[in-house]
Amino acid sequence: MNPQTILLYDGSFEGFLSCVFMIYDQKIPDAIIRKESDTNTQLFTITEEVITEKHKASRVWKGFTSKTTRNEQQDFFKVFLSEIKGVENTLLSYMQNTFTKKDNRNIDFGNKDILKISQVARMVGREKHRMEAFVRFQLTKDNIYTATVEPDFNVLPLIIHHFKDRYADQQWVIYDIKRNYGIYYDLHIVETVTIEGFSRKKTRISDELLAQNETEFQKLWGTYYNNVNIKSRKNNKLHRQHLPKRYWKYLTEKNSSL
Question: Domain DUF4130 spans what residues (predicted)?
Answer without folding.
Answer: 87-253
